[in-house]
Amino acid sequence: MSVGVIVLAAGKGSRMKAGINKQFLEIDEKPILYYSLDVFEKNNKIDFIVVVCSPDEEETIKSCIIDKYGFKKVKKLVVGGNERKDSVLNGLKVMDDVDMVLIHDGARPFINNRIIDEGIEYTLKFNCCACGVMPVDTIKVVDGERFSKHTPRRSDLIAVQTPQCFKYDLIRECHEKVNREGIEVTDDTSVVEYFGHKVYLYEGSYNNIKITTPKDMIMAKQIYENLFTK
């Protein structure tokens, strides 16, 4: 069985207000993208990696991250599209002879082997799965005037993370249909759910944050210190 990974690194990260792609911001003198790639590179269940990037950053990612740190499993760099779904489809199209694909945000540097291994295990069993965590805050459903309508139980809610994991043929077919029909989706689980497929949700990690804002960067450095320097 061949398992591939798509790492999405094409976002501009405007909310970070750093003047550069957030993938290049550093934690302990290494770019954020390095940490995501490093875990997949070292996991013996992963066969190859496709990185989706912006056209003007392709050479930088290749020379300053892939070549510099010797990531041998990164087989292809692909230019992203206008939206996330376009970027994912671009990555899917360059994969050959693959049975399963894990789709991961490059801005989630603290993915771990347990999450990867369980994602593969549950994909074999259920065809589609994603990791996530129970929200720490109470979530409210609001009406059009922003009055609270309903308070779901936190035990019924999952904040979905990545990787999101799929049988390759299934996710590619669904992404191609979404593309042809112009359907709006928020993530890859939404793509398969739109066509009636169930997604199994398993336990992620509160450390598996997506770095989006300057406050997230502060938290990421604290997580790094807790995981790797103590």
TrEMBL record:
Any one Gene Ontology MF annotation carried by this entry is: 2-C-methyl-D-erythritol 4-phosphate cytidylyltransferase activity
What catalytic activity does the UniProt entry give for this protein?
Answer: 2-C-methyl-D-erythritol 4-phosphate + CTP + H(+) = 4-CDP-2-C-methyl-D-erythritol + diphosphate
UniProt cross-references to SUPFAM superfamilies, sorted A to Z: Nucleotide-diphospho-sugar transferases
- Site Positions MEP for the nucleophilic attack: give positions: R154, K210
Which family does the entry's similarity section mention? Belongs to the IspD/TarI cytidylyltransferase family. IspD subfamily.
* Main function: Catalyzes the formation of 4-diphosphocytidyl-2-C-methyl-D-erythritol from CTP and 2-C-methyl-D-erythritol 4-phosphate (MEP).
Q: Which species is this record about?
A: Oceanirhabdus seepicola
The keyword Transcription regulation is annotated on this UniProt entry: no
Q: Which gene encodes it?
A: ispD
Name the top EC class.
transferase
Which GO terms are recorded in the biological process aspect for this UniProt protein?
isopentenyl diphosphate biosynthetic process, methylerythritol 4-phosphate pathway
Under InterPro entries, the record lists: IspD, IspD/TarI, IspD/TarI_cytidylyltransf_bact, ISPD_synthase_CS, Nucleotide-diphossugar_trans
The protein here is known as 2-C-methyl-D-erythritol 4-phosphate cytidylyltransferase
Q: Any idea of its EC number?
A: 2.7.7.60
Query: Its pathway?
Result: Isoprenoid biosynthesis; isopentenyl diphosphate biosynthesis via DXP pathway; isopentenyl diphosphate from 1-deoxy-D-xylulose 5-phosphate: step 2/6
Q: Which HAMAP family match?
A: IspD (MF_00108)
CDD domains for this protein: CDP-ME_synthetase
